Amino acid sequence: MIEINILLVFMIAAALIAVQVKDLLSSVIGIGAVGIGLSMAFLVMKAPDLAIMQLVVEILSLIILIRATIRKDLPFSTSGRWAFNTISTIIFLILFLVFAYLSFANIHTFGNPAIKTSQEYLSHVQGKAANLNIVESIMLRYRAVDTLGEASVLFAVVIGVLAIARRAWRRDGAE
Amino acid sequence: MNHQSEKGMTFIVKTVTKLTLGFILLYGIYITFNGHDAPGGGFAGGVIVALALVHVMLAFGKEASLKLLSARTLRLFMATAAILFLYGIFKGYPKAIFGNEFILPLSEMIIVSVGLFVIFIALVLVPKSDKRSE
Predict the structure, then answer these.
(1) Which of A41, A111, B39, B113 has minimal CB crowding within 10 Å?
(2) Which domain holds residue A157?
(3) Hey, are the CB atoms on B51 and A139 less than 8 Å from each other?
(4) At which of A18, A49, A72 does a domain end?
(5) In chain A, count of helices (H) and strands (E)?
(6) Assigned domain for B66 exists
(7) Domain count, chain A
(8) How many Å apart are CA A89 and CA A2, to the nearest integer?
């Protein structure tokens, strides 16, 4: 479990940077680093579904944070430090290729999936869901709980949007 | 959506958006329908489709994307997804060709993508309140 500890230290450091730094854009990038670290932690703990979810929601929230909360034009420099930029880009490309090779070498073959929960379902679902129809229990009990969690996430998002935008809308209505 | 309009980002971004939009939408649909027995599902695919729509909006500007996806179109999508969801609920699970394993993720994908895109529109179109509150 050394990977989890490394990822946790990385996430805590990124969160501290996001809280303490003065620049707003750097803070948003720190939040993004925390989200990517959480996605990798899900992958290490063998939950690829949660990893996909965390990654796409993180990207969407980063776009919203950058585009909709930072009103100023972002600084975009094209000059200076070209040697540092080139060397760091090459180093990260080599790292990416090495890890991609390792992950593709360890990928599971077709017909031998990474998730082996089907036998678990078959042996336990009748006792836990108290239902003889296994397919119906999986569709309407396990997946319904999953969808309930997703719907609660959406409701939390709507409440957040209302809390942020309520004052602006009310002020426009008053004018 | 012509390349020459001043709204949105540069020529390069618009061309790349035109080239990659179909692939991003296809990947979202793949994640949606493959999530029946593999990692993925309606929510993740819906977020990817919403990311594609946000991509169009960032590249081509507010007016072009709102002309493409008007409030009437978004409402039509949402109503279609609700009707599909009701159809899947009343049909029950083990039926023939177009079973619930396609209907329920499809409706969830449409609801999630349209909902998140509408939230993004609301956050962008809200007037700049930070100046007036001082």
Answers:
(1) A111
(2) 117-175
(3) no
(4) A72
(5) 7, 0
(6) yes
(7) 2
(8) 27
For residue B40, give the nearest of A52, A136, A154 by CB distance.
A52
Contact A161 B123 (CB under 8 A): yes
Coil vs helix vs strand at A74: coil
| Nearest partner of B105 among A130, A49, A129, judged by Cα | A49
CB–CB contact B44 A136 (8 Å): no
Q: Which of B9, B47, B102, B128 to mutate to test the interface with A (most CBs of A within 10 A)?
A: B47
Tokens of A17: 């940077």
Buried b (16+ CB within 10 A) or exposed e, B33-61: bebeeebbbbbbbbbbbbbbbbbbbbbbb
Q: Per the domain annotation, does A39 fall within a domain?
A: yes
Q: Does B87 touch chain A (CB under 8 A)?
A: no
User: Per-residue pLDDT for chain A (175 aa), expressed as one digit of tens each?
Assistant: 788 899 999 999 999 999 998 888 888 889 999 999 999 898 888 777 888 888 888 888 888 888 766 655 556 666 667 888 889 999 999 999 998 888 788 777 777 766 676 777 777 777 776 667 777 777 666 777 777 777 788 788 778 877 877 776 666 655 4
In a shared domain, residues A9 and A64: yes
Task: Give the chain A residue nearest B39 (alpha carbons).
Answer: A49
B85 touches chain A (CB under 8 A): no
ipTM over 0.85: no
User: Does any domain span residue A83?
Assistant: no
CB B57, CB B69: distance < 8 Å:
no
Range of the domain at B98: 11-118
Of B51, B94, B130, the CB nearest to A60: B51
B1 found inside a domain: no
Domain count, chain B: 1
Residue A136 has its nearest CB partner, among B39, B93, B126, at B93
